[in-house]
Design a protein that fits this description.
The structure is a single chain. Helix content is 7%, strand content 58%. With 397 residues, it is mainly beta. It has a 14-stranded antiparallel β-barrel. The radius of gyration is 24 Å and the shape is globular.
C-alpha cells in the first residue's frame, strides 16, 4: 500500500497512541472474531483441550471416565492401588487456511498435571491441575491508518495469552468390588493478558515509537463433581460423571468486569474387554458452555457442546523380559464452545499412540499424536488443521 509523499512532519505520539487505545478498547471489550484471532479454535474465551491424560487422548477420550490420570471422573481414583504423579506436555502445531493465504503457528500447553494417593484399601485422594480453556493466539495485520490529516501504513498486532485452569481436589471410594464412587471439589482460576499494538514502519513520516495497550483479566469460580464406575460383568465396565458449576467472575485489577457460571458437564462411557489383549471403549460427553454467556458482551454467544469418542487400548509386543507396549488408537468428533463469525466450529480428530512402562512398572512414558480437522460454515473459505503431540510421564513410587 502506498501513500502520497508530504513534507516530513512529526506526529505527536499521543495522536497515534489514541488510535491504538481505541483499537485496544474494542478488542478488550469482547473476545475477538475469527479475523482478529486468525483461527477457528480459540474464539471467545478459548479452546478446550479436554482435560485428558496422554493415554486417554490417544483413544479419542473414550477411556477418560475410567482413567485416574484424567481430570474427568473422581470415581476412577478408587482403582488406584499405588501413589502416582502424572505430568503432560502437549504442543499444538496449527495451520489456518484462508482465501488470503496460509498461516502456521505453534502453541505450547501443559494441559494436565495430576497426583493421587491411596489411603488404605478403599479410599484414594487426588489433586489435579488441568486446562479448561486455553486462549493463546497472536495475529498481525498490515494496512493504512489515518493519523491527523496523514494516511500512513501501519501494522496492527493482537496477542492473547493465558486461559482458565481447573484445580481439583477429589476422592475415590471403593464401595464394593464392583462399584466405585467419587467426589471432587473444583477451583477455577487463571489469567488472560490481551495486547493490542500498532507500529508505523515509515520512519520518514513518523518517529518509530511503539504504541501498545495491555489488559489483564483474572478468573475465579468454583464447582463440584461426582461420578461412579461399575463392573457390570467380567466383560463390561460402565462409568459416568457430572460437574455442577458455581459462579464464575472476571476481574480487571480490582474491578469486577462480569459474572457467569462455570459450565456444567455430564459424561458416560462403556468399556468392553471380551477380546484378549484388547480394551474397546466408547464415550459421550456434554458440556454446557452457554452458562458462560454472562462473562462477555451480548455479541458473545457460547453454545453447549457434544462430544463422542471411540478407541482401543491394545497389549503390544513385549519389550525386555516382563514389559509390553500399550498400543492405542481412537477418534472423536465434537463441537467447540464459541462461534466463528456466527457459525458453529466442529472438530474431528484421529489419534494414536503408545505407552512404555519401565523401572519395574514404577514409571511409564506415553506418546500420542492427534490429527485435528476444524471447520465452520463461516467465515467462507477458512479451515484449520492441527497436529497435537502429547507426552505424558507417570511415576508410581
Amino acid at each position: 500500500m502506498t501513500t502520497r509523499r508530504r513534507p516530513q512532519r512529526a506526529v505527536h505520539p499521543r495522536t497515534a497512541a489514541a488510535a491504538v487505545l481505541v483499537l485496544g478498547a474494542g478488542l478488550l471489550a469482547v473476545p475477538g472474531s475469527a479475523a482478529a484471532q486468525g483461527n477457528l479454535s480459540t474464539q471467545g474465551f478459548g479452546y478446550p483441550p479436554g482435560q485428558l491424560s496422554t493415554a486417554s487422548l490417544a483413544v479419542g477420550g473414550a477411556l477418560a471416565e475410567l482413567d485416574p490420570l484424567s481430570a474427568i471422573n473422581p470415581a476412577a481414583l478408587a482403582g488406584e492401588r499405588r501413589a502416582a504423579i502424572h505430568l503432560q506436555y502437549a504442543p499444538e502445531l496449527r495451520t489456518v487456511s484462508t482465501p488470503q493465504g496460509t498461516e502456521h503457528t505453534t502453541t505450547t500447553r501443559f494441559p494436565v498435571i495430576s497426583a493421587s494417593l491411596p489411603l488404605g484399601a478403599r479410599l484414594a485422594l487426588g489433586l489435579s491441575f488441568s486446562t479448561l480453556l486455553d486462549r493463546t493466539w497472536e495475529s498481525a495485520q498490515t494496512g493504512p491508518v489515518a493519523v491527523g490529516d496523514t494516511v500512513l501504513p501501519s501494522t496492527e498486532t493482537f496477542k492473547s495469552t493465558g486461559g482458565i485452569e481447573d484445580i481439583q481436589v477429589d476422592a475415590g471410594w471403593s464401595a464394593t468390588s464392583w462399584l466405585h464412587a467419587g467426589l471432587g471439589l473444583h477451583l477455577f482460576t487463571g489469567q488472560n493478558q490481551i495486547t493490542a499494538a500498532r507500529a508505523f514502519p515509515d520512519t520518514t513520516v513518523i518517529k518509530p515509537v511503539p504504541f501498545s495497550e495491555t489488559a489483564t483479566y483474572n478468573y475465579f469460580g468454583t464447582g463440584i463433581s461426582g461420578g461412579v464406575t461399575i463392573r457390570a460383568s467380567p466383560l463390561f465396565m460402565l462409568a459416568g460423571s457430572a460437574r455442577l458449576g458455581g459462579q464464575l467472575r472476571v476481574r480487571r485489577g480490582d474491578t469486577l468486569q462480569s459474572k457467569g457460571t462455570v459450565p456444567p458437564r455430564v459424561g458416560a462411557a462403556v468399556q468392553f474387554s471380551g477380546v484378549p489383549g484388547v480394551s474397546l471403549a466408547a464415550r459421550v460427553d456434554w458440556e454446557g458452555w452457554s452458562h458462560m454467556s454472562g462473562l462477555g458482551s451480548p455479541a458473545l454467544q457460547p453454545r453447549d457442546a457434544w462430544g463422542y469418542g471411540i478407541g482401543a487400548d491394545i497389549v503390544g509386543p513385549r519389550v525386555g523380559t516382563d514389559r509390553n507396549l500399550a498400543l492405542r488408537v481412537g477418534g472423536q468428533t465434537r463441537t467447540l464452545p464459541f462461534l466463528a463469525d456466527g457459525a458453529v466450529v466442529r472438530e474431528n480428530d484421529i489419534s494414536g499412540g503408545f505407552g512404555f512402562p519401565f523401572s519395574f512398572d514404577r514409571a511409564s512414558l506415553d506418546f500420542t499424536a492427534v490429527r485435528a480437522f476444524r471447520s465452520a460454515s463461516q467465515p467462507p473459505g477458512v479451515s484449520e488443521g492441527a497436529w497435537i503431540l502429547s507426552v505424558g510421564f507417570t511415576v508410581r513410587p
